[in-house]
């Protein structure tokens, strides 16, 4: 695993720029935190509300310092606006794996091809820059939109863990887990995802 947690990685193409999440991005993301509570429906510890957003940002920045997570803020170049966040986390150095998640975008920026662009850049970084062997994904088993989005980029379902965690209301939920392997990325996932991005209607 070649990731350097102190390095400020910038991942970008003509559509989106991913840069390290910083405390200075609080004001850029606050409108989504306050005005779109449904974004956090399936996630315990979500960034709903001003105080929770502060905790959300400070916690993952601290985890980056500890070599546990690498959070990004998402900037939509077409709209010239910060629109969400995502991260790589649960790094396992011995196994050379990590998970990709905690991904969210403001409602107006969903379903416009932004997510596929972000995932392409993140997976390219994961497999080609820092040399991971496996990238894992997970979601509430009720979150059909997120599950369909993961499948559409090439993730394969591995199984469902029953009663695995809490949602944002404190209810126990089942969680579905998916993944993409390094061999799958180079065999077909990269090319298929690239074609979807290039052919996405603008």
Short description:
The protein has one domain: Aminopeptidase (3-Layer(aba) Sandwich), CATH 3.40.630. The protein is 34% helix and 32% strand.
Structure description:
The protein has helices spanning 26-35, 50-65, 114-129, 144-152, 182-198; strands at 11-12, 16-20, 69-76, 81-92, 97-105, 134-140, 156-166, 172-181. Strands 1-2-3-4-5-6-8-7 form an eight-stranded mixed beta sheet, sandwiched between helices. Helix content is 34%, strand content 32%. The chain has one domain (11-198): Gcn5-related N-acetyltransferase (GNAT) (Aminopeptidase). The longest helix is centred in the C-terminal third of the chain and has 17 residues, at 182-198. α1 (26-35) packs across α2 and α3 (114-129) runs antiparallel to α5 (182-198). It is α+β, with helices and mostly antiparallel strands and 202 residues long. The protein has five helices and eight strands, in the order ββααβββαβαββα.
- Number of E strands: 8
Q: Give Rg in angstroms.
A: 16 Å
Taking strands numbered 1, 2, ... along the chain, how are they ordered across the largest sheet? 1-2-3-4-5-6-8-7
Which superfamily, in CATH terms, is the homologous superfamily? Gcn5-related N-acetyltransferase (GNAT)
The secondary structure category is: alpha+beta
The CATH class: Alpha Beta
Q: How many domain regions? A: 1
**Percentage beta strand:** 25-35%
The CATH topology assignment is Aminopeptidase
Question: What is the architecture at the second tier of CATH?
Answer: 3-Layer(aba) Sandwich
Secondary structure tally, helices: 5
**Approximately how much helix is present in the residues?**
25-40%
Task: Please provide the ordered H/E string of secondary-structure elements.
Answer: EEHHEEEHEHEEH
Distance between the termini: 36 Å
In one word, what is the shape?
A: globular
Low-confidence stretches: none
Q: What is the arithmetic mean of pLDDT?
A: 94
Reported for the largest beta sheet, the result is: 8 strands, mixed
């Amino acid at each position: 695993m070649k990731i350097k947690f102190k390095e400020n990685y910038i991942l970008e193409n003509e559509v989106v720029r991913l840069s390290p999440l910083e405390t200075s991005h609080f004001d850029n993301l606050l409108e989504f935190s306050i005005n779109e509570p449904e974004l956090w429906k399936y996630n315990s510890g979500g960034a709903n509300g001003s105080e929770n957003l502060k905790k959300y940002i400070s916690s993952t920045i601290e985890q980056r310092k500890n070599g546990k997570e690498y959070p990004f803020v998402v900037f939509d170049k077409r709209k010239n606006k910060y629109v969400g966040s995502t991260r790589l986390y649960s790094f396992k150095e011995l196994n050379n794996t990590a998970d990709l998640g905690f991904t969210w975008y403001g409602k107006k920026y969903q379903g416009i091809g932004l997510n596929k662009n972000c995932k392409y850049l993140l997976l390219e970084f994961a497999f080609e820059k820092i040399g991971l062997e496996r990238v894992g994904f997970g979601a509430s088993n009720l979150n059909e939109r997120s599950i369909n989005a993961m499948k559409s980029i090439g993730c394969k379902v591995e199984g469902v863990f029953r009663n695995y965690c809490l949602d944002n209301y404190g209810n126990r939920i089942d969680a579905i887990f998916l993944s993409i392997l390094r061999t799958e990325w180079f065999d077909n996932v990269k090319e298929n995802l690239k074609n979807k991005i290039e052919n996405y209607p603008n």
